[in-house]
Amino acid sequence: MTIKKITFLFLFVNFIFLHSSYPQKYNDVDKLVLKYPKHFKTTEALAERIQKDFTSERDKARAIYSWIAFNIKYDYASFLNPPRTQGFSYSTEAEKQRKIQLLNDKLIQKAFTAQKAVCEGFTALYQHLAGLTGLKCEIIKGDSKTRLEDIGRKETSSNHAWNMVLIDKKWILVDVTWGQGYYDSSKGRMINDFAPIYFDTDPDYFFQKHFPDSGTYLGQKLSKEDFLNGPLIYNITIEGDHKITQPNSGLIEVKNGENITFRIKNISKTAQFFYLNKKNQPIRIENAKERKGSLEFQVTFDKNIGQFITFYLGESSIVSFKVIWK
Question: What domains are defined for the chain?
Fold first, then answer.
């Protein structure tokens, strides 16, 4: 493949907002759910079908995840132009809770019948179906990290929502919104692309891309600084367990001509592994060493490297850092 063709390929990859480039992998639950109707008359009917086909808590939770991811599309138009917040008045706490429940029920039914939603609709529908199948589930609101510009942000914001569901007395993390696909800015639309990695995601990876408003997870305090200043990881990072162990920050402060050492798990030195320079030309990693299950290598930073440096494994982005010149 010529340099020109490779450059075009990576330019195309860069258009993707949140991509899932690894091959789709369906487990036995997913394969059965794929045979379900795309439309059910009621959420109760869907829940009954799931309970008929699956008995374990984990399989039921996965079936709900799969059906929503297969059939509910992200409403990007509503994301860009959100509807006005609907207010209401109340005289007692009981009346307040009834009206909140009514609004939540409308949100769930809209997502279920229109088969499109933003993250609030995805998470509300997941929680609702979980309850109907006997599962305990919570909605968590917080921040998400998806763009290069998110590396080194000063503060978090509440812009996303996800779920926690109790499976065999253990809470697992679920983001069915990201499980359904990604936004492709080159096409100007959402792409349905099932991503199983956001069901029961390893918390170490999950909280590199999510930060709850509470700042805690199961009673433990999370580091806002680590979230804001950490590198940007991608779906393939989680899928391949490519943990970045060096450097320990997503902010690389460097002088012109300085060498920086990187260490990433589960990458072979024979892999097609490189980064793009400021001209979007691929620069292959040379003289890398495999040490204790990780690839260790150095990059010499010069003015051919721009504000960010992203490493690619094959055709897929694996990790990005922000470059701060001294």
Answer: 20-230 (3.10.620), 241-325 (2.60.40.10)
